Amino acid sequence: MAQNKTHKTSVGGQALIEGIMMQGPKGMATAVRKPDKEIEIKYHTVKHIRDKVKFLGWPVIRGVVNFIESMIMGYKTLMYSAEASGMEDIDDEDLSKFEKWITDKFGDKLMSFVTGFASILGICLAFLLFMYFPVLFFNKVNEWSGSDLTNYQGLIEGVLKIIIFVVYIALVSRMKDIRRTFMYHGAEHKSIACYEAGKELTVENVRKCSRFHPRCGTSFIFVILIFSIIVYTIIAKIFPQVAEIRVLWMLLRLVFLPLIMGIGYEFIKYAGKHDNLFVKIVSAPGLWMQRLTTNEPEDDMIEVGIAALKAVITDNPKDDEIK
User: Fold this and answer.
1) Does residue 305 carry a pLDDT above 80?
2) What is the pLDDT of residues 47-84, one digit of tens each?
3) How far is CA 167 from the centre of its chain?
4) What are phi and psi of 85, to 5 degrees?
C-alpha cells in the first residue's frame, strides 16, 4: 500500500512474544509467528469505557483511563501471543512426575494463580523500587545533611527513579527472550514509521526506517518521570512539613500520580502532532531510552510488523491521522 505524503497517525502497538499488536482505524489486531513459521492474524474486540461514560474521555482524565485499558489489553494480547507462538507447549517427557501430576490436577487454574501471584509481586516490586526506596533514600541523605536538601526532594527522588529505571531496563535487556521481544518492538516502530513516511509497506522499505518513535510507551514513562520531578518539587516547597513525613509524602505522591499520568498522556498526543523545540527537548530522554527498549529486527520480524499494521489501517491515510 503506497501513500503520497508524510503524515502523523494515531496508529500504535505493542511488542508481544513472537508477535506484534497494532491498533488503528479498523480496531485492534495481533500478528504472531506460529511454530510452523506462518503468521497468524487475529482481531480482538476492544470496548472503551469512555464510550459509555463521556467524562472519562475528557483531556487529562482520558490519559489515566487509556493507561489502565492499555495495561489490561496488553496483558491479554501478551498471553494470547504466548499461546499462539507455542511458548506454552512443553513436551510431557520434559516434565517430572510431580509436574505432570500438578498439571493434570490443576491445569489452567494453577496457571491463573501463578500469573496472578506474579502480577501482585510485580506491583509490589514496582512500589518498592519507584516509590518507597527513593523516599527512604532521600530521607536518610537529608538527615545526614541536616535537612538542607528538603527543597530539592522532588528533584532528587525523581533523578533516583530515572537511574533505577535505566539500570533495570539495561539489565533485563540482556536476557535472551527480552532482547528478542525488543527486536519485535523495533519492528513495530519501523513499520509505523514507514507508513507515516508515505512509503510502501515492504520489508526493504521498513528496514531503512527509524526504530525510534515519540509515541512509544518508553517515552511516555520518561515524560511521566520528568513531569513528576517538576510537580513533586513544587509540592515539596509548598508543603515542606508534609514532605518530611514519609507515609504522608508517599500518599500525596499517589494522589497526584493520576494527574501526572494524564498530563503526560496529553503531551504524548501533542508530540505526535508537533515537532517543535519544546517537544524535542522533553521527548529526547525517552527517544534515547528506546536505544535499550528497541533492537534492530530481523526480516521475518518486520514481516510480522507489516502484517499487524496492514490489518488495522484503511486505504485512506486520513482515517489514521491524529485527531
Assistant:
1) yes
2) 888 888 989 999 999 999 999 999 889 989 998 998 89
3) 17
4) -80, -10
CB 308 within 8 A of CB 19: yes
Q: Give the residue-averaged pLDDT of 24-41.
A: 95
CA pair distance 246, 267, nearest whole angstrom: 30
Alpha-carbon distance of 60 to 50, in angstroms, equals 13
- DSSP for 218-237, please give it: HHHHHHHHHHHHHHHHHHHH
Q: Are strands 27-33 and 39-44 parallel, antiparallel or unpaired?
A: antiparallel
Q: What is the DSSP letter of 48?
A: -
Instruction: List, for residues 180-197, the tens digit of each pLDDT value.
Output: 999 999 999 999 999 999
**Mean pLDDT computed over every residue of the chain:** 86
Nearest to 166 by CA among 281, 292, 76: 292
pLDDT digit string, tens, across residues 199-219: 999 999 999 999 999 889 888
HSE-CB at 83 with a 13 A cutoff on CA atoms is 10
162-199 as b/e: b if 16+ CB within 10 A = beebeeebeeebeeeeeebbbbbbbbbbbbbbbbbbeb
Average the pLDDT over each of 19-28, 188-197, 313-322 and give the range with the smallest value: 313-322
Q: Which residues lie below 8 Å from residue 267, measured CB to CB, with a gap of 6+? A: 223, 227, 282
Alpha helices in 107-216 (DSSP H): 108-127, 133-144, 153-172, 176-196, 203-207
Which cell numbers hold the place of 293?
527498549
What's the grid cell of residue 278?
A: 519544546
Contact, 135 vs 154, CB < 8 A? no
